[in-house]
TrEMBL record:
UniProtKB keywords: Fatty acid metabolism, Ligase, Lipid metabolism
PANTHER family given in the database record: AMP-DEPENDENT SYNTHETASE_LIGASE DOMAIN-CONTAINING PROTEIN, LONG-CHAIN-FATTY-ACID--COA LIGASE
Source organism: Herbihabitans rhizosphaerae
Taxonomic lineage of the native organism: Bacteria, Bacillati, Actinomycetota, Actinomycetes, Pseudonocardiales
Similarity comment text for this entry: Belongs to the ATP-dependent AMP-binding enzyme family.
SUPFAM superfamilies: Acetyl-CoA synthetase-like
Top-level taxon in the UniProt lineage: Bacteria
InterPro entries in the record: AMP-binding_CS (IPR020845), AMP-dep_synth/lig_dom (IPR000873), ANL_N_sf (IPR042099)
Protein name: Acyl-CoA synthetase
Domain AMP-dependent synthetase/ligase: 26-441
Cellular component GO terms held in the UniProt record: membrane
Length: 615
């Protein structure tokens, strides 16, 4: 037996569950070696192959000089290499940090420098950006490109450095095992940069212990609701940016906890086409995605061939919402409605679930923003109970989770085990527990301001009922106080309007110190063309679409529908449809699609003033 083999036997990669993410990988490789773990572009990796290939990446990083605690930057789409490099960096003792693909060069330079990135592993499309910012990154030692040809001496090919490491792994596995054995629960598992709605984004230090605490809480809630632990090999889809902690938590970390099979969707715009093939058992979506699913069904009811089919789908939507609402309220469902629901489930609902690719879902999750009652009731009546969760980057993603058996409308559920919540005198939600992060990277003042006496000040306003269910009132710094002194949550108003039509994208509501609310409305960048095509509307640009009378009539209808769900003081009195769309590149939205309110107020100041003062 070689010295290396002896060392491998005596130095375990991860001792039996010390409380790190690496322990989950080791467990899965031992207990579920042949279960598929990752799938992407016709490439499969089992859990044993996942561990070995991640070890190859770890050895390559060690050879590049990466040391314990160094940051390895990941700037890739959702793909197998993203997961392998993430776990590979952890095995090397480093801290993997994913950067949003939509960052401008200036924003990327800021986060890469702030995190002291030592090695960056990037898609071919990002190489030139990294070369352009390299002079401003004194800690950067190497740029490694995945599936890219390069003539630059400053860029290494991922396939070449991993091929060298792979050929040497059997003889040098002990080096990886020693590096992995040094990883402790309090070490950083990643650094996640907050959205930067005000000022520069903050690097939030997420620990292994925090992630494992949240995973334990989520799994306990799932097992309580399902009556059993989901079996290994359950399907999941990874499509939201892995720089977003919610995506990391549900598909990457929870995928490791459950030994799931994760399929990567490289382009989020292809999600609707990909889901029927994936048929996920556990599925996370932000509210806008759930709204688009409902919008697609509603659109089908308007454009399906044959009057009878259209009428049948419309009736199926009505009955699903009626039954869903009754189930939420615990109300009795009359015999006529029960009969219609059973019939429509066979004729329509079952086909709709399959068409959406959600016919196998056992855990459906929504988070990151408010979701409309309309969406929740429809899907519950369709046979899919969406579980709302609440949390933030600073809580390792999840603080509270609703029940799948008895969810409460208007709430985000109760605190996970080990989490304490309380409401401050001004209504702010405070939290503490093992999942709360230790603070921000290089930002001691911000850390001291946010984490006070062991309590995280979330910045959100909320209420807790007698049963411990939390309701979110709004964001503390975003609450609108109108001229009559009424407090209004703009997010609730914006969601009510945007959720009323598949055509509408982002909505911004304004009205601080004003007598009424006004709104800036944009077209949905992913659906406005299809909406126009289905109705024979010729429009080559958002500007042309925004000027069309039928488009404006649909927006008017959506505003009326949204207003009908709101109290009088919350209703939008005037609005304008902008002739462009918003995203992270245009500057109005963060990479996680949150509104940059200060930017919008400044950029559209004249338009807002005209809306408020027009006669």
């Amino acid at each position: 037996m070689t010295d290396a083999a002896t060392e491998r036997r005596n130095v375990p990669m991860a001792s039996p569950d010390r409380g790190t993410v690496l322990d989950l990988l080791r467990r899965n490789a031992i207990q579920h070696p042949d279960v598929p773990a990752l799938f992407d572009d016709d490439q499969w990796l089992t859990w044993s192959e996942y561990e070995r290939e991640a070890s190859v990446v770890a050895l390559a990083l060690l050879d590049l000089g990466v040391q314990h605690g160094d940051v390895v930057g990941l700037h890739m789409i959702n793909r197998i290499e993203h997961a392998l490099c993430d776990i590979g960096a952890l095995l090397a003792g480093a801290t993997p940090t994913s950067y949003y693909n939509t960052l401008s060069p200036e924003q990327l330079a800021y986060v890469a420098r702030d995190s002291a990135c030592k090695v960056s592993i990037v898609d071919a499309s990002q190489v030139n950006t990294w070369l352009s910012i390299k002079p401003w990154l004194p800690d950067l030692r190497a740029i490694v490109v995945v599936e890219g040809d390069t003539t630059s001496a400053e860029v290494l090919r991922f396939e070449e450095v991993t091929a060298i490491a792979r050929s040497a792994l059997d003889d040098r596995i002990a080096e990886v095992e020693r590096a992995a054995a040094r990883v402790r629960p309090d070490d950083a598992v990643t650094i996640v940069y907050t959205s930067g709605t005000t000022g520069h984004p903050k690097g939030t230090i997420i620990t292994h212990a925090g992630i494992r605490s949240v995973l334990d809480g989520v799994l306990a809630r799932v097992v309580e609701d399902l009556g059993e632990r989901p079996e290994p090999g359950r399907a999941q889809a990874s499509y939201l940016p892995l720089a977003h902690l919610a995506e990391r938590m549900i598909t990457h970390y929870l995928g490791c906890e459950l030994a799931s099979t994760v399929t990567f969707v490289r382009d989020m715009r292809a999600l609707a086409q990909a889901l029927p093939a994936i048929r996920p058992h556990v599925f996370l979506a932000v509210p806008r995605i759930w709204e688009k699913f409902l919008g697609a069904v509603t659109e089908r009811a308007a454009t399906e061939r044959g009057a009878l089919r259209r009428a049948l789908i419309r009736r199926a939507i009505v009955i699903a919402k009626r039954v869903g609402r009754a189930r939420f309220d615990g109300a009795r469902i009359g015999p006529a409605t029960r009969l219609q629901h059973a019939l429509l489930d066979r004729l329509v609902h079952r086909k709709l679930r399959a068409a959406l690719g959600l016919d196998e879902v056992i855990v459906a999750v929504s988070g990151a923003a408010p979701i409309s009652v309309d969406v929740l009731t429809f899907f519950r009546g369709l046979g899919i109970t969406i579980v709302e969760v609440y949390g933030m980057t600073e809580t390792s993603a999840v603080l509270t989770m609703n029940s799948m058996r008895a969810p409460r409308l208007g709430t985000v559920g109760t605190a996970l085990p080990g989490v304490e919540l309380r409401i401050a005198e001004d209504g702010e939600i405070l939290a503490r527990g093992k999942g709360i992060v230790p603070g921000y990277l290089n930002r001691p003042e911000a850390t001291a301001e946010t984490f006070v006496d062991g309590w995280l000040h979330t910045g959100d306003l909320g209420r807790i009922d007698q049963d411990g269910y939390l309701s979110i009132v709004g964001r503390k710094k975003e609450i609108i106080i109108n001229s009559a002194g009424k407090n209004i949550s703009p997010a609730n108003v914006e969601q009510a309007i945007s959720g009323a039509s598949e055509l509408i994208g982002t909505v911004y509501v304004d009205g601080d110190a004003r007598p009424f609310l006004v709104a800036l409305i944009t077209l949905d960048p992913t659906s406005w063309r299809d909406w126009c095509t289905a109705r024979g509307i010729e429009a080559a640009t958002p500007e042309q679409a925004a000027a069309h009378s039928e488009i404006r009539a649909e927006v008017e209808r959506a505003v009326r529908t949204g207003n009908a769900q709101l109290s009088r003081v919350e209703q939008v009195k005037r609005w304008t449809l902008l002739d462009g769309t918003w995203d992270g590149v245009t500057g109005e939205l963060t990479p996680t699609f949150k509104l940059k309110r200060a930017v919008i107020r400044d950029r559209y100041a004249d338009t807002l003033t005209n809306l408020h003062t027009a006669r």
